[in-house]
Amino acid sequence: xxxxxxxxxxxxxxxxxxxxxxxxxxxxxxxxxxxxxxxxxxxxxxxxxxxxxxxxxxxxxxxxxxxxxxxxxxxxxxxxxxxxxxxxxxxxxxxxxxxxxxxxxxxxxxxxxxxxxxxxxxxxxxxxxxxxxxxxxxxxxxxxxxxxxxxxxxxxxxxxxxxxxxxxxxxxxxxxxxxxxxxxxxxxxxxxxxxxxxxxxxxxxxxxxxxxxxxxxxxxxxxxxxxxxxxxxxxxxxxxxxxxxxxxxxxxxxxxxxxxxxxxxxxxxxxxxxxxxxxxxxxxxxxxxxxxxxxxxxxxxxxxxxxxxxxxxxxxxxxxxxxxxxxxxxxxxxxxxxxxxxxxxxxxxxxxxxxxxxxxxxxxxxxxxxxxxxxxxxxxxxxxxxxxxxxxxxxxxxxxxxxxxxxxxxxxxxxxxxxxxxxxxxxxxxxxxxxxxxxxxxxxxxxxxxxxxxxxxxxxxxxxxxxxxxxxxxxxxxxxxxxxxxxxxxxxxxxxxxxxxxxxxxxxxxxxxxxxxxxxxxxxxxxxxxxxxxxxxxxxxxxxxxxxxxxxxxxxxxxxxxxxxxxxxxxxxxxxxxxxxxxxxxxxxxxxxxxxxxxxxxxxxxxxxxxxxxxxxxxxxxxxxxxxxxxxxxxxxxxxxxxxxxxxxxxxxxxxxxxxxxxxxxxxxxxxxxxxxxxxxxxxxxxxxxxxxxxxxxxxxxxxxxxxxxxxxxxxxxxxxxxxxxxxxxxxxxxxxxxxxxxxxxxxxxxxxxxxxxxxxxxxxxxxxxxxxxxxxxxxxxxxxxxxxxxxxxxxxxxxxxxxxxxxxxxxxxxxxxxxxxxxxxxxxxx
Length: 831
Ligand code: 9GP
Prior knowledge:
- By secondary structure, the protein is of the alpha/beta class.
- The protein folds into three domains: 104 residues, no CATH class; 373 residues, Rossmann fold (3-Layer(aba) Sandwich), CATH 3.40.50; 318 residues, Rossmann fold, CATH 3.40.50.2000.
- Strand 20, helix 25 and strand 21 form a beta-alpha-beta unit.
- It binds N-(hydroxyacetyl)-beta-D-glucopyranosylamine (9GP).
């Protein structure tokens, strides 16, 4: 029965409704109000930073109306929510995204124009929220975007790092890292919630609660407060606004006044420093596990605060804890949040007094786990002694989880000692290690990979024994996707306008299946010309960006060949630059007339290397060394340019992705779980040059084999090649040998610097099979060139590709997760 509205309800409604003021006068008023009242500016002292801040705060006011409404609505109807737990959210900028979502872009452009600013310049004032490394963190951002747009009740949970992904400077060709102080200016897109704070314990000792089987009291003096900051996630064309709740360590209470009064100033703030460091920095490793103690504490702070918050919200419904899985689904984004499993067990056993079996049943029905990698160096394992010291209660719970699990395995497969050893959550090494992927698998009701090939591989490798014990149905595939809002509509307005015209309206932005309509226009000459022109305009925009960031002038008429992603040996940027060296050699050998007939090409690299990843950093140096020589060679001119765009970020990607003719996704087969930039490039009319790996395979299936250039060995061949190369030195083909020779002759500066890269192939077992794939890679490049020369065919490929890419919308992915794993339903917000 509806309660009679009180005055508070009515007042609340005044600020929480879906109707948003759109008229220029109201918008202008609110921008001016923020300029003067929030930022103390006068008309004479407005600069573009404050024009941005004031308009961002004004947009946020509008967003908040709907945000309040959304949360209140979900509480009121008792909606089941999904919680996407991720230590990374690579959001990028929010302002433009919010303007588009609220369909207020033109209105704000008008108001800003009136006060003398261009919207594009104002947008450029925003700092990226770079709370992630690469694909995994950006996927999380796309998924919360889809949840919001599709009206699913769901939140992201993460950490609010004071320093996001480092800024990459290139000095003398080398990567140099600088801190990303993204919170130096006010951040309109977050809300501190000092009232939402939870204590998180570390270290200490346990006291068994008498009379109970599994109940302990955890006594510790080291208790930190995790405080919530909320980031709104605008849903495009819907009232629904999502939320990412990020935790930060609150330190004020840790100031030691006694020490201060005694003159011990460092001691007075010591506790604050120890606490704050937990949420200070994002670990800059992509696909590598560093195993640092601080990282473990960071993970636990995140998991504990999140689980306490989820349980507290659930308890406000008044329902019994056994119904938690009916109200909450928790998705673990990789193993980083796996401590959520023992933490929920701790809360249910020790705080709530449940028995083990009931607590375990609730836990496993609530959690599901996504695996994102098979690289051995990325597998999280924590030494048992470290875990035992920092989290004694959790170590105990993990032992019990393992014990009950192994008892079950033993019953199913008596006398198989080997199986027990291989499947145990505790690895019997010295010291013993907790295998986090195994813990995540045992504690979840579903495990998924992120592309079809990857989901198959994990069933045959890391989880092979679990498939035997727990059955195949537990293991499913959820191919990744990306958000069409940011990765088409926002970053590529020219192409988006054409799609809107063909579809008849903008509904494709939330329903990508509608882009199929492009196929009908593939033979329309006028349309094809405009399609080509849109790509050329994007290439000019990138050429300007390259000039501004590197000082290198490139011709937009050349073929733009892009590899933009984290620098990692398995992604093989080294193979790419070696092929560039070979191309340079060939061009130098040609007579001028012959060279003039060559297809001009701009090879663009972008990406960061983890600070401690020496080989990856040498690859960056090699790319820059090659660029310097090639770009200065007058004989070569525009026929070949090589560019390393510094400080790759979401915003940089928004410039780069729409401008590619081809993009390279050339990981050794079986190593790239999915990839998501491959999807972004094709969704923007670029063609892939890639290996038969990750989501490349499914992209090829969707767009058709005419629309993709595959090369290289297949995943099932990799083991044999590696085995062979362990015992035999590779024999580089003439092209690869030529590239080695040029480096060793010193063409690109001191040859010694680069010798270890060559040695990794010739003497290090060539783990990533560059020598194996190089010949077919060079052939694939030739095929690309040949195809690009036939502009008509190329435009056909480009249009058909976009038309057939609907599968790779994150909306499709989220719908599959919602229906097959989370069991949640879309609920459009109604007032
Ligand atoms: O390396 C994978 C990448 O292939 C995938 O697209 C992305 C999102 O699923 O996750 C990456 N994995 C990691 O960053 C670490 O597991």
